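TASK: fixed-backbone design
INPUT:
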């Protein structure tokens, strides 16, 4: 059995270490799944600890990336958002900075 390249089986599964959901290891767009489609938690390959989604970022091509912080080593990891990811949770993460601005928003109205 060869381990060369980034091959992974479409038959293998991803089991979430947070909510226990079992999903296919490949996303609908045939990318390797980096996080749970239900609760968006992931697993850090380096230290095997759980990663917690903290933000979304948009790439130049418009694709969304989910930014995770590892609960074990505090490293930040980015993984592509899959089309079957929990959209409500993604939106909640995306608008979180707007709901908790580090400055009073009333000032924007005076500009
Ligand atoms: Zn989960
Ligand atoms: Zn880690």
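OUTPUT:
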């Amino acid at each position: 059995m060869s381990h060369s390249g980034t091959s992974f089986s479409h038959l293998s599964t991803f089991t979430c270490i947070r909510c226990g959901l079992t999903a296919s290891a490949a996303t609908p767009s045939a990318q390797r799944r980096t996080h749970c489609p239900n609760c968006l938690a992931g697993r850090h390959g380096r230290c095997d600890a759980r990663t917690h989604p903290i933000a979304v970022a948009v790439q130049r091509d418009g694709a969304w990336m989910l930014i995770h912080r590892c609960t074990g080593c505090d490293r930040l990891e980015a993984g592509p958002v899959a089309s079957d990811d929990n959209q409500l949770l993604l939106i909640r993460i995306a608008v979180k900075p707007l709901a908790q601005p580090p400055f009073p928003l009333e000032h924007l109205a005076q500009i």
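COMMENT: The chain has two helices and six strands.
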